[in-house]
């Protein structure tokens, strides 16, 4: 329907004749627009068109009364006089008429209410009427019928009120309430349509009559429109510009810029503001802006207005507007760069005088313009993320959209330069926070990328700025070394910020280090940051970042071949079974508890765009493989003695293994999980070669850099763990085993085999001794415990555990003042210094439980948040 | 101070020279303390038999280092000599004489300023009137003897100057007096450090140990809310403590206890992993000497754990030995590293004296874990492992079997040592585990009753 208008407006060149009146009436119109659009979100699709046509439509005149849009359009079209298109007209009419009929019905209801003085029903109907009319308002023109109705109603109301005063008889409660409501509504509402109402009052007949000639209008519009639809997508503005050129441009003089801006600014945020229209106006304004001050002001307002387009809850701003906003921001920054005496800062005073722009006062160095560049940049960034969230990542559209990140990065960088420049002048009192925010943004775009990509980004953004400009914080570096850049950015934030930004900087750096295989640094930073202790106090996005970092550190450990550490680190995230949510890479279907739409919406907003995802399948694969390497020997070790069976490293893995074993027929492995499970089975049976083949045939390893190295590493680990498993499983059946035969069996050299065996003997995992003369392992017999004996051992363990718990409880109660319980100095170390404790070989130790305390990453932040 | 750290690599075998820690130690030591290390460097260059100097250039480097090290101190005579040596002059230039004069005049000035207070403190009646309350003491002295705060501070400055001149004993006394009287926390802490340095340099180990404790306490209390300063101060203390650790046998146990304190272990791990070498040597050589076997074992375990944790950050033959022996159970590698480690030890200022001890203890260690794992060992192989010839090895093992309660026999005919591993009895295990229960419960109930 509104498309219709759009067409109409294109064709209605004659409307320019009314141009002069437009601006006299424009003030009013803005006002009108505000309140009409009560239901903001519903206007989403017809908004652009509505915006487009409002120009021509409103140009008409305030006196014109549109019964509905259909009619309203007519006058503009009548002159183009193309009557041929009857069937379109019919089609169009029907939809319109329906609404119009509805409107009419409501109006009648109100009139009936008036007759019987039933204010309760009048108020209801009025609400209904207002709702209906919203849909039919076009460009601030309400249907004439509506105007008539409300005008009459107002009169009637005033009458009633007057009567009320004189008659002693009270109205009943509902009626009185209804009257009051109507009074307020009308007061509020009628203001918006004052012009039309006045027109109506002045000459009601004439006002209503004007419909008649408008009737034949819409046909042309339709035709024109159809031609135009195709173009519209690409050059919306062009279509508009033609109109503008005719008459409008005359109106945009440099002098009037501020006036326009003020109008626009005032209407900002109000309902039913036609933003697109404003944007068009501002684009024009920018063309005519001459002084830097004008340019800056226009650009700033323009960018804000563009951002307002995307302010709907879930929708991102339209692509072309994003691009335009990006360009305008770039222009803004460039203008600011060249015009050094103009600055945009947050704490500047508003300039109220529209007539004359502020001038450089004596002694003042700058013309200060209120605004926040950093907020614009942040918003631009957020909008890109939003749009990436909503695009299907497997389309080329996504890739195209992603290329915009480069230009965004440039903007961020230029913004950074700008703020650095501002910071140089201490008198400006630019808050440190702004600089931190912008650096954080830059970091956010860099930290998860491989260094080559960062290098390209950097190269491009340095190309954009003139060669004489240099950044203080991140000096020009011809090598564009990503690691160095990260370091500089993070260090800056460490020094100059606190709280969340600092924590985030830390996490970003750890993430980057882990991504680039610097495991030890990453781990040390992770431990020294003490974030695992207080991550739960941070906001959810930071918790997500923490989880991502944790996972990345785990993956890094895996690449280094540190299976134990990798498993340990990944445990919290992968063992939870909620990887998707914890990493914000997908919404899990909640089976048990219902999530409110609000929560769901929030969760959707948090989702990371696809290009930032960590491959979940790879993650699972790594986690399962690590679990396998740890669990299988453990299973073999505890297989014989029932009392120690409780020790479980990974519940998830155990569950899968059990499930796998329950299957009656096992086919060839299909997915990653199957591969790992079959490998586990083979490994448990001592067939390490088979296990290696299974693990190697997992496709997803290809995603890791240096696939071959990883495979070799895995093969080596499998060999060793295979040997251990073999010894655990088959030791009871042998008296002696020759080292040489073990060595051939597992294709390890004898030295390695004896080292492994020695280790096992030394840690008392294996009741055996080496015979150096014959090069054999001698298994001791008779070390198996009877049931009673093993139970006695368990009991003694439990008893000492009990004492320990008691002591700890008391210590906790007395807040550690009772030094008598300083049982374990080593523990104390973990508690006290924290950062280094407990890493390394807990596997070898006799203590099967994972120690609580600050020894490991207590990951899985967000748990509570997700559970809601 | 870091600038004064000289390139004093002293070995001609580069592989060993790589493990020289001079450069790492120097920043954490006082310049006066670096001096003995440099001296040691010089002595290494001198061929023991002929007395010839092996590397002229190195020697010159070291002398240069000494000069730049001491230039800023007030030991003018010595500095002048060094300068002459460097420049090949006979007579030191006059500037040195000037400086000497200046120093002397300064000394005199302070002498006068502090004479009164020194005198007072030597009088019995005054000393007896002093109480433990410093503020009251100062009040008392002010009232009775007209002592001012400036005079007390002069003690501090004088002590500083004396130290700078190399008169450690006098400096120590002065600082002691200052500490008794002063109420300025900051300066008292510095005085404590100064006194520790004096005691170390004048080799009064016992009082040095007292000062170590004092410094430690002041770090814990005074800097409690400045983690970075704590870290730095602890690092320095650890380095300074190396002097008593390896020169004063009685200091070994308390110092090891100090170093194994979680705070200090963390400091070592975070800031100065190379200390691990000294720690390892101290623990290994300490085996069997200590009365308390339990602590010994615990420390050994800790060392193994830390060596493993830090292996990515710091490695030298000593830590690699521990790694090979206790983590990888690679005896061959352990043996190789032991040979290297001995070499390293002989070139280390602190460890020179412990080298033999270390090798001996390390052999014990190897043998112990070897026996634990093996049931039968050939003598020949074992002697190779221990780095001894066959007869010596036999004697060594016999002694070992006799001294310790090792359950082993030598089968001479076959040339083997046969170990007898009694399986650990379940009953024993249960008894072990429940042993402390009663005591602990008692303590617990006592604590609850409180």
UniProtKB/TrEMBL annotation, chain A:
GO cellular component: eukaryotic 43S preinitiation complex; eukaryotic 48S preinitiation complex; eukaryotic translation initiation factor 3 complex
Compositional bias annotation for Acidic residues: 16-50, 74-86
Gene Ontology molecular-function annotations: RNA binding; translation initiation factor activity; translation initiation factor binding
Compartments in which it is found: Cytoplasm
Keywords in alphabetical order: Cytoplasm, Initiation factor, Protein biosynthesis
Origin superkingdom: Eukaryota
Subcellular location, principal: cytoplasm
Bias type Basic and acidic residues, positions: 88-98
Domain PCI, residue spans: 610-784
GO biological process: formation of cytoplasmic translation initiation complex
Record region (Disordered): 1-98, 810-868
SMART domains, per the entry: PINT
Entry keyword annotation includes Cell inner membrane: no
Comp. bias regions, Gly residues: 829-844
Family listed: Belongs to the eIF-3 subunit C family.
PANTHER family cross-referenced by the UniProt entry: EUKARYOTIC TRANSLATION INITATION FACTOR 3, SUBUNIT 8 EIF3S8 -RELATED, EUKARYOTIC TRANSLATION INITIATION FACTOR 3 SUBUNIT C-RELATED
Self-association state and partner proteins as the record states: Component of the eukaryotic translation initiation factor 3 (eIF-3) complex.
Known function: Component of the eukaryotic translation initiation factor 3 (eIF-3) complex, which is involved in protein synthesis of a specialized repertoire of mRNAs and, together with other initiation factors, stimulates binding of mRNA and methionyl-tRNAi to the 40S ribosome. The eIF-3 complex specifically targets and initiates translation of a subset of mRNAs involved in cell proliferation.
Protein name: Eukaryotic translation initiation factor 3 subunit C
The encoding gene: NIP1
UniProtKB/TrEMBL annotation, chain B:
PCI domain location: 244-424
Protein's GO biological process: formation of cytoplasmic translation initiation complex
Chief localization: cytoplasm
Xref: PROSITE patterns: PCI (PS50250)
InterPro entries listed in its UniProt record: eIF3e, eIF3e_N, PCI_dom, WH_DNA-bd_sf
Pfam families the record matches: eIF3_N, EIF3E_C, PCI
Function: Component of the eukaryotic translation initiation factor 3 (eIF-3) complex, which is involved in protein synthesis of a specialized repertoire of mRNAs and, together with other initiation factors, stimulates binding of mRNA and methionyl-tRNAi to the 40S ribosome. The eIF-3 complex specifically targets and initiates translation of a subset of mRNAs involved in cell proliferation.
Family: Belongs to the eIF-3 subunit E family.
Protein name (Swiss-Prot/TrEMBL): Eukaryotic translation initiation factor 3 subunit E
Source species: Podospora didyma
The organism's taxonomic lineage, starting at the top: Eukaryota, Fungi, Dikarya, Ascomycota, Pezizomycotina
Gene for this chain: INT6
